Amino acid sequence: MIRNLIAGVFMACLSLAAVAQTADTAPNVLPIQPAHAWADPTHAMLLDVTHAGARIVAVGEHGIVLLSDDGGRSYRQARQVPASSTLTAVCFADARHGWAVGQWGVILATDDGGETWTLQRSDTSIDQPLFSVYFKDDRHGWAVGLWSLLLETEDGGRNWKVSKLPAPPGGGKADRNLLHLFADRSGTLFIAAEQGLVLRSHDDGATWQYLKTGNRGSLWAGTATADGTLFVGGLLGHLYRSHDGGDNWEAVDSESTGSITDLVASGNRVLGVALDGYVLNGTSASTRFSARQRADRAALTALAVLNTGQAILLSKAGILTPQ
Fold first, then answer.
1. Helix (H) / strand (E) containing 8
2. Contact by Cβ (8 Å): 115, 91
3. Kind of pairing, strands 239-242 and 230-234?
4. Torsion angles phi and psi, residue 316, rounded to 5
5. 48: part of which helix (H) or strand (E)?
6. Is 177 helix (H, G, I), strand (E, B) or coil?
7. C-alpha span between 212 and 247 (Å, rounded)
8. What is the pTM of this model?
9. Which SS3 state, helix, strand or coil, does residue 57 take?
């Protein structure tokens, strides 16, 4: 099976996100099977979480979609999910309209807050997984993934088209893995990518520019604070900040040696999680974040911030209780 497509330690945590079928399986006839109910899905590997209005929606392996309407105290599986592919990311444009992406280039959509989902796209001719998705409203969205795969829709996902990226700095073909897609307060799009690169688009994805952070490691997470400060983080706890829309970047001490898997802004506060159980806390003005390491050293994958300021933590082992 194809492993270590991005980095060894990252794929140890997210291995199912980019695992291809064995060579004796004909990919062009591989069926996309619907997800099924699990006895205890909260202990499955979960890879992303977001808000759909007041609801919390988390996604992960086997096409699991979990919903919580009580602030994360209890969860239930979505009623209908047409793919059992590992889901790596989820995004909602409003309380009802959401999208999830994952293995085999799967894109799922919901218009009822995550209760039921439909399959908008898949490609079993090649396992080119999607790692991130972002919608600015219920019509305009983008999804990114392996080998510079960039998809765009202008009709809520009824049609997805492949967008071609320019060659990276120094030449060669556009084949960098695109790992996390996000936007700032002005609507400028950013993609955290391999080799310390961030891609930026000021025109809704029509054109893209490569930005160098000064690091050569993969960047797996990114966010923008309310005051417009950008943060990206990734391999071995490397964290970078930009106060000028990505033109210039400076290193921020994350106090973590674990690779950063998610960053979330709440106002000008930034929370993050990393492998080896690190939970990060800082602000747009911080030159040094504080990091707390959980005793279980769990492989943390994502987080969501509640109105109370508390965070829900996801991991390779499922949803975790605070420590």
1. helix 8-14
2. no
3. antiparallel
4. -60, -25
5. strand 46-52
6. coil
7. 9
8. 0.92
9. strand
